[in-house]
Design a protein that fits this description.
Order of helices and strands: HEEEHHHEHEHEHEEEHEEEHHHEEHEEEH
Structural class: alpha/beta
Helix content: 25-40%
Strand order of the largest sheet: 4-12-11-10-7-5-6
Largest sheet: 7 strands, mixed
Length: about 400
């Protein structure tokens, strides 16, 4: 066992980490080095959608690791074909670029949008409009795309080519378009920014506006995709078809994996040498992703997300009715839910952690719930009881 207090000084201090070290996970539970059990309602920030160490994912990783771990993208490997087939089938898009993370996926989407218009002889179209309160990653381009100033401090000069509009406000978006605008990038459900779903009419209108004005619609589904909203992609519930979609987090079943999906005519702009990554669709990560898709289908987990999501949301609304002065809103889709409790969210998360329930923040005022799809009603009740106790302490 490492010397915790000594060894943590070796890590750059980029996270305000909780004083807990996890050593084991199984299903919806994780265990710290003292053996204490925690009900995980954060899923590693929407990564462990199938819970911890799902047998199908573990088996796929073991089998692939004994066969071929890495070969680079100078060559083909079989697991990536299966994952590409799943992604294109569910998204309705045509081609996939594999990478390692959500930030890298959004970076790729930004590059692809610019390259597409360059190839059309419209190199003046390079700006992308993103939304206030959005979060798209930590690279220089993706943090600039992010509509939150706190992630940008200290990193100037930032890349040019981004403009911002309020979320769910079509007139403001329309006013932000210039002759340089090439696309609109938004999260179908804003996660880090407070768990705000796109309004149905708004997203349909944005899609129509983009079509009518020679703009690409790019959807970031890194946190709300992979079934978390009850359909494999959240945008399926809006009856639209975006031009580019990014996905990551839960894609690799806990291993680092991301992807950029695009329509054929747009994907063509990523020709030989235009973009790349060493570890994209690494055979082990791709085998895990294949197991994730197969498990979601075989266990009918999308239906479970809808059912459990509705139950969870209603239980949160019961809390809102019980604590009307503390809780100002409950919102979300499927199993990405937010409870707004101004100035109290941090205290609720901290108290629940002490009581063995892992929750997340979505800004200073919102408690975010991202449980594994395998959570039961009884386990939802356990989470609700922990939140209730924390609110009562306030």
């Amino acid at each position: 066992m490492s010397d915790f207090e000594k060894d943590k000084g070796l890590i750059m201090d980029t996270y305000a980490r909780f004083p807990v070290m996890f050593t084991e996970g199984k299903g919806v539970y994780v265990y710290d080095r003292d053996g204490k059990e925690y009900l995980d309602c954060g899923s590693g920030i929407s990564v462990n959608n199938l819970g911890h160490c799902h047998p199908a994912v573990v088996a796929a990783i073991k089998k692939q690791a004994e066969t071929l771990i890495h070969c680079s993208n100078l060559y083909w490997s079989e697991p990536q074909f299966a994952v590409a087939a799943y992604l294109t089938q569910y998204s309705g898009l045509d081609r996939v670029f594999f990478c390692n993370s959500g930030a890298e996926a959004n970076e790729g989407a930004i590059k692809l949008a610019r390259k597409y218009f360059y190839d059309q002889g419209k190199s003046e179209k390079y700006e992308i409009i993103t939304m206030e309160k959005s979060f798209h990653g930590r690279t220089l381009a993706t943090l600039t795309a992010t509509g939150q100033e706190k992630v940008k401090t200290g990193f100037a000069p930032l890349p040019e080519g981004f403009r911002y509009a309020p979320f769910n406000d079509l007139p403001a978006l329309e006013q932000g378009v210039t002759p340089h605008t090439c696309g609109v990038l938004l999260e179908t459900v804003q996660a880090e920014g407070g768990v705000y779903p796109a309004a149905e009419d708004y997203l349909k209108q944005v899609a129509a506006f983009c079509r009518e004005n020679d703009l690409l619609l790019i959807l970031d589904e890194i946190q709300c995709g992979m079934g978390r909203c009850g359909t494999m992609f959240a945008f399926e519930q809006y009856g639209i078809k975006p031009d580019i979609v990014t996905v990551a987090k839960a894609l690799g079943g806990g291993l680092p994996m991301g992807a950029v999906l695009a329509k054929e005519e747009i994907a063509k702009s990523f020709g030989h040498g235009s973009h790349g990554t060493t570890f994209g669709a690494n055979p082990v990560a791709a085998a895990a992703a294949q197991a994730v898709f197969a498990t979601i289908e075989e266990e009918d987990l999308l239906s479970q997300v809808k059912t459990l999501g509705a139950y969870f949301k209603e239980r949160l609304k019961e809390l809102q009715r019980a604590f009307p002065t503390l809780i100002t809103d409950v919102r979300g889709k499927g199993l990405i839910l937010g409870l707004e409790t101004p100035k109290n969210a941090g205290a609720v998360v901290n108290q629940c952690l002490k009581n063995g329930v892992i929750l997340l923040l979505a800004g200073p005022d919102v408690v975010r719930f991202l449980p594994p799809f395998l959570i039961t009603e009884n386990e939802v009740d356990t989470v609700i009881a922990a939140v209730r106790a924390a609110l009562e302490n306030l």
